[in-house]
Structures are given as structure tokens and as C-alpha cells.
Specification:
- The protein has about 375 residues and is of the alpha/beta class.
- The chain has 2 domains: about 10-150 and about 290-335, Response regulator (Rossmann fold); about 155-290 and about 335-370, Response regulator (Rossmann fold, 3-Layer(aba) Sandwich), CATH 3.40.50.2300.
- It is about 45% helix and about 15% strand.
- It has 13 helices and 12 strands.
- The strands form 3 sheets. It has a 7-stranded mixed beta sheet with strand order 2-1-3-4-5-11-10, sandwiched between helices. Strands 7-6-8 form a 3-stranded parallel beta sheet, with helices on both faces.
- Helix 6 links the parallel strand 6 and strand 7.
- It is globular.
């Protein structure tokens, strides 16, 4: 994936998105359904059916944040007349292709697709295109003729993780080796996280073991970490790059079982509740907080606009390239490194979690130490 307009536009995208959503809503109220229908293909105004296809239900974000946020924004943009038809593939690429076929058969107006396997889904994307159904690639850039894309700057995420790891290592960076626990090889985001991390880490640390895991699962990361400890020796491992929080949990379990009296710094991503609690406890060094609200807003706004046949230029100010599909309109959302120092200002302030959710009995003392009350 390559950006055409550069990362300086990322912040502007978020501002432009907020403006465009507000303008869209006010225009609908001022002009009424008649003009909305006149501007839309096939008479589409607010009576829009959005097919939402999410990849799995193991990671908390999809059911807790992405689905309800997208559903809410579609309703807001369509005066409560839009409908979201939902399907979760449960990490099964074949099942997801069947779900897309069903939505094509049922003639939804637009698809929001978070692909299980970006390459395998390309044929289904082409089928949707041939049926006149535009596709918004959500969170992962699916291959095929997608019409729009929203996600986070994935190479930036890798760089943020790697830079945090280097800062945590300090003078210990050259006193041992690190282990890299990358994401699933079927997820194009994982390759981008990995590439961004290597941009920062190469030449500054020695990577003793590096793994591309399967399906982002904690148990796979746990098994790989056990292998790394056995191969390198626990005294040699000074840090672990973990691409997300779920795998970080598996890594940390292996480190504890492997006899580490003091845990080395471990990175993560997604600010999952368990990850935030491990950060509070000092077991996990950091995560990457990705504001799901702006990403969901972007997906809903682009989907509704595409269903109506409206241009995306007021929503998407960046473009990306996918295999065989150049210049895809895109909204890329900035991210924030999450550590013990900014939990209050990020996930709590944004309403992702309450203090009570984070500071259960097990973490109460650590929370009090951080001033989380």
C-alpha cells in the first residue's frame, strides 16, 4: 500500500470527516428526502441497506466498538431509515465469501468489508462490483476493485510500537536480543506493522527470533514465545515486539512460565481491556490506542455516500493503492501510544473504559498508584 498525498493530510482527514458528516446531516434536514433521492442512484435516499462484514469475534473491538458504532452512524446519516445487515466470519475466509454472496443476492446497496484474508476475498469484491454494489474496505485493505478504504496508518503503528520498545530498553538495547511476534500472514495490516517496526528497530537491536503468527491468537504467540525462550535462553531476551494485545497476553504468560523474575518490555496494540490492565500492573509496557470512533464514522460516511452515488472528495483526502486497484479514496486515522502515563487521557477520557472496568480488585493497588480512582 502506498499513500499518494502524504501523511500530513491525516489530521486534515479527520477534520474534513467531521465537517462532511455534519454537512451531510444538515443538508438532509434542510433539503428533505426529495432532493436526497434525486441525487442518488436508483432513487436511493435514506432507505439504504449497508452490508457489514467483520472478520472475527475473538478480538473485543469488533463486537464492542466497530459494529455498534457503524450501526449508529449509518442511522444518524439516514434519519434512522438506513439498515445495517451484519455478518461475522469468525476467522473463516470461506464463510466470509459465502456471506458476501448472500448479501449480493439480497441486493444490499453497499458493503463495508473487513476481510479475513485480503487476497482470498478479491474474487468476492469483483462479484460485488459486477453486481453494482460498491465496497468500502474497513480496517484491512482487501484486494480487488474496492471503492474506498478507512483504517489507521499501519506502518506508523509499527513505528510507534518499535520506538516505544527502544525507549523502554534504553541502555539494555545492545545487551541481549529481542523477539518479534508479528501478526497473521493472511492480514495485510500485519505486514505493514512489521515493515514499520523494522524501519525503527533495524540496526538498533538484534532480533533473535521472529515469528509470523496464525490468526492473531494468544495461544500461537504463547507457543512461539516458549520456543524462543528455549532457543535463546531467558537471560538473553531483553524485549518482545508483539503486534497486538491478544498475542502480548500469550507472550507474557510464556515469560512468566519461563522463569522471568522481571518481565522484559512487551508491546501491544488495540488497547483491549486485558491489555490496559496488564499495562496498569506493569506487565505489558505499552499498547497502541486506535480511536475506533473516527474510523467507524469514516466507514459509515463513505458507505452512505457511495450508496447514494455521491462523491467522496469531501470525506477522503488521501488515497492508497491495492493490488491492481490504484488511487482508492482513503481516510487514515492517527494513533496514540498507550502507556501507564496516559491511560486517563486516552481510553478513560474517550469513554472506551471506565475506571471501574479497569480497576478491578486485582488491579486496584496499581490503579491507586497511578491515580486512577
Amino acid at each position: 500500500m502506498t499513500s499518494r498525498t502524504g501523511r500530513a493530510a491525516v489530521a486534515a482527514c479527520t477534520v474534513a470527516l467531521a465537517v462532511s458528516l455534519s454537512a451531510c446531516g444538515s443538508a438532509e434536514q434542510a433539503e428533505g428526502d426529495g432532493e436526497a433521492s434525486a441525487n442518488a442512484p436508483s432513487g436511493k435516499g435514506d432507505d439504504i441497506r449497508v452490508g457489514l462484514l467483520l472478520p472475527e469475534n475473538q478480538t473485543a473491538r469488533y463486537e464492542r466498538f466497530d459494529r455498534p458504532l457503524i450501526e449508529r452512524h449509518v442511522k444518524e446519516l439516514t434519519d434512522n431509515r438506513g439498515e445495517v445487515v451484519y455478518a461475522n466470519a469468525k476467522q473463516d475466509a470461506t464463510l466470509q465469501s459465502q456471506q458476501i454472496d448472500t448479501m449480493i443476492t439480497n441486493k444490499v446497496d453497499v458493503l463495508i468489508l473487513d476481510a479475513v484474508d485480503a487476497r482470498a476475498v478479491a474474487g468476492s469484491v469483483r462479484e460485488a462490483k459486477e453486481a453494482g454494489i460498491p465496497v468500502v474496505a474497513f480496517d484491512r485493505l482487501a484486494e480487488g476493485p474496492v471503492d474506498a478504504y478507512t483504517s489507521f496508518d499501519n506502518e506508523q503503528i509499527g513505528r510507534v510500537q518499535a520506538q516505544a520498545l527502544l525507549e523502554a530498553l534504553g541502555d539494555d538495547a545492545d545487551k541481549g536480543q529481542i523477539v518479534m511476534m508479528n501478526g497473521s500472514f493472511t492480514d495485510p495490516n500485519a505486514a505493514q506493522f512489521k515493515r514499520g517496526a523494522h524501519q525503527v528497530l533495524d540496526g538498533k537491536v538484534t532480533v533473535g527470533k521472529e515469528y509470523d503468527t496464525t490468526e492473531w491468537k494468544a495461544e500461537h504467540a504463547n507457543k512461539n514465545m516458549e520456543g524462543a525462550i528455549s532457543a535463546l535462553g531467558k537471560d538473553e531476551i531483553v524485549g518482545v515486539y508483539s503486534a497486538n494485545d491478544s498475542m502480548a497476553g500469550g507472550v507474557i504468560t510464556a515469560l512468566k512460565a519461563g522463569g522471568f523474575s522481571t518481565l522484559p518490555p512487551v508491546t501491544g496494540q488495540d488497547a483491549e481491556l486485558s491489555g490496559v490492565q496488564r499495562i496498569v500492573a506493569g506487565e505489558q509496557f505499552m499498547s497502541v490506542y486506535k480511536p475506533y470512533g473516527p474510523e467507524a464514522e469514516a466507514a459509515a460516511a463513505m458507505a452512505v455516500a457511495l450508496a447514494r452515488g455521491e462523491p467522496l472528495d469531501t470525506i477522503a483526502e488521501d488515497t492508497v493503492d491495492s493490488a491492481g486497484t490504484p488511487d482508492i479514496p482513503a481516510v487514515l486515522i492517527p494513533v496514540v501510544p498507550l502507556t501507564r502515563d496516559n491511560i486517563q487521557e486516552t481510553v478513560i477520557a474517550d469513554g472506551v473504559y471506565t475506571v471501574a472496568q479497569i480497576c478491578t480488585e486485582r488491579y486496584r493497588a496499581a490503579c491507586e498508584e497511578l491515580g486512577l480512582r
